[in-house]
């Protein structure tokens, strides 16, 4: 059973950057006005910020990171660990985190790692960097979590295009012997991997000009080629409404948490259908379950820190909070994190 | 759950107005109300009522309401 209690690690700050290109559902080429209205009322994603073709996740994360480091007054030389959690890195090789070490002016003594774990990106980043800081030999970690998921798929895929938005988030973790422990559990269902995948472009099926670009019409407005990322919406839905609630329940029981002694439930903002189901199943009060998907869409791993930045900025800065965070996504992987914060610096979202 | 009750709940979950027209032999793929949203509602119905995870393949293989019922009680 994979679960951790990470001692001596505090979340110090969080912020995020989105491309300055808001797109309403009705403005998407694949939608008629009627499609867009139905989509907005059922799936709940009214707006998303889409990166142009020359903007990478690392560019958005870079902006967020520079602002966060400056806002916290951290010396660049004091940063020991840099995590880049993304499935949309700059290149296939090298890892984008090494490029960001140089771009951000971090010391060559920095430990860097890329975590291509999709929607669970924040949980993975906090779990891995947190465990590295816990012993105290390294003191500061910068976690960059972001994607340009809109650029991964076919622009003619109605089952995918309207769901995603682009963003780059930055979180700062620091060794702190007085911090409350961070509890995380993670799970994996590899048998479901085909529900969220990009069939061509890896070494199982390298890109070839003969077949990787050949578009197929799957009906229902879904046209894509094997190089494009795909979603099997039904299987993802089935997975997302069943597995995460069990994990949330288990963690709440383990740590004697109730609806009353938790301040907020941060549920990965996949879409309204999924989040509503999880909320209903666990009978979570709506005032404790912030939503930002109406503004940003599904941000992949960046979803949870965006909820902190967009919905909880004032409270994170002014009082201690107990948050239960739930993420689920490709792999298939899912998990729950119990995070108790002291005052966290939250900088406003930037649009570039 | 008997099939009669199943049909009623099935109709309710995917919002079929004319429940009387449904029989165990009805091919649900042909229903006017059937579509991508109905699929999700059906998945949610199975999860809530039978604690079962329906997959895309289950739904594709099933033809009639009887087939769906068999999946629910299996």
What's the domain count of chain A? 1
Measure the end-to-end span of chain B: 12 Å
CATH superfamily annotation of chain B: ACP-like
DSSP strand tally of chain B? 0
Mean pLDDT of chain B: 90
Q: How many DSSP helices of chain B?
A: 4
> What is the fold-level CATH name, i.e. the topology of chain A?
Peroxisomal Thiolase, Chain A, domain 1
Average pLDDT number of chain A: 96
By CATH, the topology of chain B is Non-ribosomal Peptide Synthetase Peptidyl Carrier Protein, Chain A
Label the overall shape of chain B.
Answer: globular
Short description:
The complex is a heterodimer of chains A (352) and B (74). Helix content of chain A is 28%, strand content 25%.
Word description of this protein:
The complex is a heterodimer of chains A (352) and B (74). With 352 residues, chain A is an alpha/beta fold. Chain A has a single domain (1-352), classed as Peroxisomal Thiolase, Chain A, domain 1. In chain A, 28% of the residues lie in helices and 25% in strands. Chain A has helices at residues 33-42, 57-72, 96-103, 121-134, 233-254, 272-282, 293-296, 303-311, 313-318, and strands spanning 3-6, 9-18, 22-24, 47-49, 81-85, 111-115, 140-147, 167-175, 182-188, 196-197, 216-217, 223-224, 230-231, 264-267, 321-329, 333-341, 345-346, 350-351. Chain A starts with a strand and ends with a strand. The model of chain A has no long low-confidence stretch (mean pLDDT 96). Chain B is an all-alpha fold and 74 residues long. Chain B has a single domain (3-73), classed as Orthogonal Bundle (Non-ribosomal Peptide Synthetase Peptidyl Carrier Protein, Chain A), CATH 1.10.1200.10. Helices cover 57% and strands 0% of the residues of chain B. Chain B has four helices and no strands. The N and C termini of chain B lie close together (12 Å). Chain A binds chain B through residues 42, 159, 220, 232-235, 237-239, 241-242, 273, 277, 281, and chain B through 36-37, 39-40, 43-44, 47-48, 53-56, 59.
